[in-house]
Write a structure and sequence with these properties.
By secondary structure, the protein is α+β, with helices and mostly antiparallel strands. Helix content is 30%, strand content 24%. The chain binds aspartic acid (ASP).
Length: 588
């Protein structure tokens, strides 16, 4: 038997027991007469004690072991004279009577401690060592629990987990596919699923009624910070449901996860129309932990000879409450520089400071009288001590820029607290997005999303402009400004699906070629259905008040899409290429 207990198990009441532990050397301390080793495993750390006077051989043996060596130690549990209150096992230590080195270790390239000295790159290259660190292990354990609780909840709600294939057919919508060449079908390729979307809809046609799957999805997108080419979804589909049923079910799941994993009772799940989210927060995923709703000022700010405003499509701002005293002119200049950075790309920033002494100071005082600015204050409900931040420009752009500024102000003012959780359903997304460059419509969600029932006649008969205003039965769950997931009620009618494909630029032949299997299935009694998918990695991060999904993935890729530990992607040899009938002609 390698061990009688884990390294996190022993307590004062175990004093006197003879036990055996196995684990890794966390640190060792040589204090002359005594040597101490902290032995670590997944469950905790226990102190081993060696006494030179009692057993010099053993003590000398203990002094030779290095960091991360694997040891087996037998001894007697005893009360510690100097206790460590920060550790569950901190009241005891093991007076070791036998020590066996199960394996030695090279000196690790970084310290295996909660706070490590290793940078990102080295930790990714030696991810198996990084995963030994307690905070990283806790994240992975958390993920395991979240998956378990999800399975439990959905299974109790009559969902069944069904696996869908990983080698599927490439489709032109959405992101780019990762493709896999087929050896036995020369010149042909599978694609890895961006999501199991079509399969889960087919499972509804098959009558499974409620499906879920914790499933890997693959998207070959340009990597932005915190995107992974492969990620995990909690993917679901339900039959005979309206939007309301889906929102309720997944609100229930979200509450369950917060409650069981964090002991947090979420309060309300407000709902907001997509249009309102964009108008009031400049974003379809507003962070509701703080206010600062947008106010539009066109009616007050135009026609005062301030050319920038006069030429702008939209003048819009936010009010930061009570910061006039703490926000210096230097801070204001800093914010102006911040919005001018290429990442934000704004031309400038106008501020109006309503000082606590009643005076008003603004960067555009030349053009606007105090009376004008008082009108602005009334519009915002601003009072003495507040500062308005105003931006102007083309509507979509300026909304995005102000949204970034709002979030940054939220950060600087400490309004985005990591232990506060504000969920929000964003509803009624546009069905289609018009792209000026390619002059075509794209599905805002995906091509199987249903328009709102009331919009169906307009979709079937309306003109081009009408199509831009169609609303979809599509919804996103947002928590603290992070999109946790989204879904939609699907089209289950062949005629409507064909119309949608046509709007998306598919010829009937191409639609048949790409999605004939699905549309064909709809002719055999497809039930009304809808679904949703949550990003599991992201949900883990948000529940822990963290930003990076990478920290919750055991073996993530870096921001170049590389796994530096196994060195992938990598070239394959000519034999393999020949078998796949592939000739490379790589242009650099
Ligand atoms: N398949 C969708 C997605 O990955 C989710 C859904 O509509 O259920 O975003």
């Amino acid at each position: 038997m390698y061990r009688t207990h884990h390294c996190g198990a022993l307590r004062l009441e175990d004093a006197g027991k003879e036990i055996t532990l196995a684990g890794w050397v966390d640190i060792s301390r040589n204090l002359g007469g005594m040597t101490f080793i902290d032995l670590r495993d997944r469950f905790g750390i226990t102190q081993l004690a060696f006494n030179m006077e009692e057993n010099a051989d053993l003590c000398n043996q203990a002094r030779k072991v290095g960091r991360e060596w694997v040891l087996q130690a037998t001894g007697v549990v005893r009360e510690r004279s100097s206790k460590n209150a920060n550790r569950p096992t901190g009241d005891v230590e093991i007076s070791v009577t036998a020590l066996e080195v199960l394996n030695s270790s090279k000196v690790p390239p970084f310290t295996i401690q909660d706070e490590t000295d290793g940078g990102d790159d080295i930790r990714m290259k030696f991810r198996y060592l990084d995963l030994r660190r307690n905070p990283v292990q806790q994240n992975i354990l958390f993920r395991h629990k979240l998956a378990m609780e999800t399975r439990k909840y959905l299974s109790d709600a009559e969902f069944i987990e069904v696996e869908t294939p990983v080698l599927i057919k490439s489709t032109p919508e959405g992101a780019r596919d990762f493709v896999v060449p087929s050896r036995i079908n020369a010149g042909q390729f599978y694609a890895l699923p961006q999501s199991p979307q079509t399969f889960k809809q087919l499972l509804m046609v098959s009558g499974f009624d409620r499906y879920f799957q914790i499933v890997k999805c693959f998207r070959d997108e340009d990597l932005r910070a915190d995107r992974q080419p492969e990620f995990t979804q909690i993917d679901c589909e339900m039959s005979f449901v309206h939007q309301e049923d889906i929102l309720n079910t997944f609100e229930g799941l979200t509450r369950h996860l917060f409650q069981t994993l964090k002991g947090i009772e979420l309060r309300d799940f407000p709902r907001m129309q997509y249009d309102d989210a964009v108008r009031l927060y400049g974003s379809d995923k507003p962070d509701l932990r703080f206010g600062m709703q947008f106010k539009e000022l066109n009616h007050l700010a135009k026609g005062k000879d301030f050319a920038i405003f006069d030429h702008a499509e939209l003048i819009v701002g936010v009010c930061a409450d009570g910061i006039a005293d703490q926000f210096s002119n230097k801070d204001l200049n800093e914010m102006t520089e911040w919005v001018k950075r290429p990442q934000i790309g704004a031309g400038g920033l106008v501020y109006v400071r309503f000082n606590t002494d009643g005076s008003i100071k603004s960067s555009i005082g030349k053009f606007f009288s105090d009376e004008d600015l008082q009108q602005w204050a009334a519009e915002f409900g601003a009072k003495a001590g507040d500062i308005l931040f105003i931006m102007s420009g083309e509507t979509d752009k300026v909304r995005k820029q102000l949204s970034e500024l709002r979030l940054e102000l939220g950060n600087r003012l400490g309004l985005r607290k990591s232990d506060e959780f504000k969920p929000l359903w964003v509803l009624d997304f546009p069905l289609l997005e018009w792209d000026e460059t390619t002059e075509r419509f794209y599905a805002m969600h995906h091509p199987f999303t249903s328009p709102k029932k009331a919009d169906i006649p307009r979709m079937l008969n309306g003109d081009h402009e009408t199509m831009k205003s169609l609303r979809a039965d599509a919804y996103d769950l947002v928590i603290n400004g992070v999109e946790i997931g989204g879904g939609s009620i699907r089209i289950h009618d062949r005629e409507l699906q064909s119309k949608n494909f046509k709007l998306l630029g598919f010829t009937p032949e191409k639609a048949e070629d790409q999605f004939g299997f699905l549309v064909g299935a709809f002719e055999y009694g497809a039930p009304p259905h809808g679904g949703i998918a949550f990003g599991l990695d992201r949900l883990c991060a948000v529940l822990n008040g963290q930003n990076s999904i990478r920290d919750f993935i055991a073996f993530p890729k870096n921001n170049m899409g590389r796994d530096t530990m196994i060195d992938a992607p990598s070239a394959i040899d000519d034999v393999q290429l020949n078998e796949l009938s592939i000739q490379l002609d790589i242009k650099k």
